[in-house]
Structure formats: C-alpha cells, structure tokens
C-alpha cells in the first residue's frame, strides 16, 4: 500500500542507535480541507534534525521522521485551499506546519510566535487529534497551505531547500532589525546558517562583518561577501579595534556557552541589537553582566513568518543568491552519512538530501 494511504520515510526507529535510521511506511495525518499533499524531491538537513533525532531536545518519539526544509511538487489540494497553488507546482515547506492563524500574533505575520496549541512543527509536533507530525526525509508531506510556498523558477531545488528553515531563521532578524544600506552587520558563527546570513546581509546592502573563533573560515567568508573578518581567538584586542562599530549582530553559533557577550556588546553602536537564533542544548544558560548592556538590545528570534519566507525566496531569486550546498542521495545510508557528518561539522555549509524518486517507489 502506498500514497495516498501510506507515506514512506527514513525514520529514527531506535533512539539508542539514532545515527542508523531505517526506512518505514506510516499513516499520514488526516487530510483536512486546507491541506496540500506534496511529493518530495529534496530536503535540507538542519541542525534541528540532529538535535531532535539524537534526543538532545528530549527523548525522540518512536519512528520519527525528521526534516523540515522540504521541496517537492503539489499532488493534491484540499477543497478549501485558496492561496492559488496548483497541482504540479514546485513548493517548499519549512519548520512550521500549522498555527491558529487567528490570534494577534498570527494576524500580524508572527506565526512562529503563536502560543496556541494549534501551532505544530513540521516534525515531532502534535496535531489536535493527537497525530505526531512527520518530516521531510520522506516520500510525501501533508501540510496546511498557509505553510506551503511556491518556489521561484530560477532557484534550483537543492538550493531552495536550506532557505526554508535555516535561511529564513537568519533572514528574519536581519529584516526585522534594519539590515540594509548604511548598516554594519555582524554574523557570529559561520556554519550552515551563518554562511547564509553573510549572503543575505550583503544582498540587502549592509557592510558585513563575519565573526568566528579562528581564521579557518576567513577565505570562505570573504568569498561569500563579508567585508571584514574577525577571528576572536586570534585577534587579542578585537573588541577594542571594532568598538562602537556594529548596528546589528546575529548570533548563529550552535552553542552560546563560549561566546563572550560583553565583548560583542563593546562592538555595538548605541541602540544596536544583538539577536540570537541559536537553540542549543536545553541545559545552556547565557551569562550577562547587566552594566555591559548599556544602550544595547538583546533578544532571541525564531524561524520566520509566511510573509518573510516569501520575501526571502523573492530576494534569492532576484539577486541570484547561491547558498553553498552539498547534495547526498536519500537512503538509510545517506541519512546515516549526513547525521554523522553533521555531528563532526563536516559540511560546507549545508546538506540537501536528493534523488527521492530513486528511494521511494510511489
Ligand atoms: Zn496564532
Ligand atoms: Zn531547522
């Protein structure tokens, strides 16, 4: 039995051996009036996938399929879909699959911050009927149309995938905090998300400062478009050298425990903003000296809204931005490879799983 009764996916079947996922078949969620069925062609590999699969964020659920940077083709539309999608359209789904669409936050383009129990993540979230959502390392996904986005024709599928979670997660704080011409913007942590932060901030017209511990990412950062590179462990007085310089810093590091916020604050102009997008292990705490924060704002940002995802896709299409992506064919072995290499940081700078038509026969 296959689609539409069953979907297939590469799932964590044994949490103790999470790096060796297995191919399974499972029931999709109930088909609702606003749902879109998508036959998946590619899925980006997000740091969240590894956190979830490895139980870093609490015990992984049984037979969990992860993946929330999904690109595929529309194969079926619910009877009440009204956002203009058509069967055959190439579309994407990011990390959010549902929200109430009715609260103050949802109505002001802040769906990621919806507090309702109707907010559901693309995987490991729970729908109102108890169904646990399954992600994009799979043959198909079924998602509410509000969280399905048409991909502009000139963005290759494997490059569109990482925009849908990682990309918009760094784009949203850039957009919301005035990144643009005349602004000096720092990106801390040059990895899967940070490298896209450099690309977007530059495309938005800002002067870009790539900030990392060592100089190992310097060459890549400059190629990506950074105007300056700061190696914090190698340039002793960097916080003094760049004092009173930056208008905005986006923290993209995977861990906050070894970041000296006081040094970052010293580089900020008055009114400057530091926004973190890191979701480290739940046990981590941020240490701050209140006096160091004089005149500077600090906050945490989550994902991006439908409006922001569409804006990002338009920006990437218009400016022909190219995230650095390595493709790996999806299979049990392929997912094992990306999980193990993500753990080692062995990726430049983002994986996209591809060749779904070869792995899934429906
Ligand atoms: Zn809401
Ligand atoms: Zn993600």
List the helices and strands and how they pair.
Layout lengths: L6 E5 L10 E5 L8 E11 L1 H7 L16 E8 L12 E4 L2 E3 L5 H4 L12 E2 L18 E5 L3 E3 L6 H4 L5 H11 L7 E5 L3 H12 L3 E6 L5 H7 L3 E4 L6 H4 L4 E6 L9 H6 L1 E9 L20 E4 L5 H14 L5 E5 L2 H13 L5 E5 L1 H4 L3
Parallel strand pairs: 10-11, 10-13, 11-12, 13-14, 14-15, 16-17
Antiparallel strand pairs: 1-2, 3-4, 3-8, 3-17, 4-5, 5-9, 6-7
The protein binds zinc ion (2 copies).
Compact overview of the structure:
The protein has 362 residues and is an alpha/beta fold.
Please write the CATH class name of the largest domain. Answer: Alpha Beta
What about the largest sheet? 7 strands, mixed
- Percent of residues in helices comes to 10-25%
What series of H and E elements makes up the topology? EEEHEEEHEEEHHEHEHEHEHEEHEHEH
Q: Could you name the CATH homologous superfamily of the largest domain?
A: Medium-chain alcohol dehydrogenases, catalytic domain
Q: What is the 3D shape?
A: globular
Bound molecules: zinc ion
The tally of domains stands at 2
Fold-level CATH name of the largest domain: Quinone Oxidoreductase, Chain A, domain 1
Under the CATH scheme, which architecture of the largest domain would be assigned? Alpha-Beta Complex
Overall mean pLDDT score?
Answer: 94
> Spans with pLDDT under 50 lasting ≥5 residues?
none
Oligomer: single chain
Span of the ends, CA to CA? 9 Å
Main structural class: alpha/beta
H/I helix tally: 11
Computed over alpha carbons, the radius of gyration is 20 Å
What fraction of residues sit in β-strands? 15-25%
Family: Belongs to the zinc-containing alcohol dehydrogenase family.
Enzyme class: oxidoreductase
Cofactor: Zn(2+)
Subunit structure: Homodimer.
